[in-house]
Design goal:
Layout (H helix, E strand, L loop, with lengths): L5 H17 L2 H15 L4 H8 L6
Helix pairs in contact: 1-2
Amino acid sequence: MSKMSTRDYYDYKSAIEAANSAKDKDALKKIKMQLIANYGLSDSCVQELLRKFGYSV
């Protein structure tokens, strides 16, 4: 698995914040699947981003 770049981190963070604001659980679910598929659960950035989810998906 590749290491997440700083730009990717902030892109994902922005997408998560937008989905949280819109209460869009489907978007959050897609973001979660993308994060795990691209970087894996062992990546510390992924773990931090998943904690930013406003809803359980």
